[in-house]
Prior knowledge:
Strand order of the largest sheet: 2-3-5-4-6-7-9-10
Radius of gyration: 18 Å
Number of domains: 1
Strand content: 15-25%
CATH superfamily: Alpha/Beta hydrolase fold, catalytic domain
Distance between the termini: 47 Å
Structural class: alpha/beta
CATH topology: Rossmann fold
Amino acid sequence: MRKYLLPWKFSFFLAVCAVLPGNAHAQNARSPWANYEDQFQTEKISRNGFDLYYRSLGKGEPVLILGGGPGDDCDYLLPVASEIAKYAHAILLEQRGTGRSLPSHVDKNTVNLALYLEDSEVLRTHLKVKRWTVVGHSAGGLLAMYYAAAYPERIHKLVLLDSVPVASQFLGAFQDNILDRLSTEDREQLASLETSNSPENQMAVAQLQAKGLFFNRKIGEQLAGELSSAWHADVGRLLGAEITAPGYDLRPRLRNFHHPVLVLNGRQDPMDPWMAYETSTAFRHSTLKFTNRAGHFPWFEQPNDFHETLRFFLESK
Length: 317
């Protein structure tokens, strides 16, 4: 089994993205998310020599939405943000180094955890928000936990969607879980692709991994071919190495976090139920929910159940 394991840089990024080295950009073709994107107002704030972009829609309680990767463009979360905007103020952040929020250069001085947390705080202040709900998906869920540890009183509620777990000791099964969902033929192809790091091979790896991230293999294959958003590899390597450093454990810092938390997972996510359970138990006031017959992106596979659960939690007092 070990010979099929992939480099860590592929562990968390959106495997349904078109993977290219460095900063990758959307294709020229009209995005499959364009119908959602056209609903949102795009705004920006100045941040250390570049503009930090965000999209907003709706009225009511503010909800910050953080995408995964780290280093993924946030477009794949537009369907989630669009539903939230029906009953709240959805704020979808194009995190630094992704989308249009591009520093002139990417290194440890421009992409690091401290700056990511600071970006969120600067945006909150700019919007004149005292407290907001923070929703994070995958690696964005881990970023949301880091934010909750650093600024607990700035959070009204916390939502962790198929999140990277709260501590490194619970993460080990993720790659094996992906492999377990692939056919022997897929595994052999992955092994052969490991011999080259070319963009073409990386894209092929991404499309193969997508099959293991979805319960419904056909949906995974469809999205792997259609999604036009991208992973920014340089950002992913820098921030990923920092936030998932060996031995990381946020439980001591979150022990006294006293605001409501929802841990919402696809039951068949390779970020499996045990990981979700251990993350949930790190909080004093958490609710753990699973979306059946869904993987890492449950809003694509079981949208009705997913959105109903999320809305119930966000609207509850």
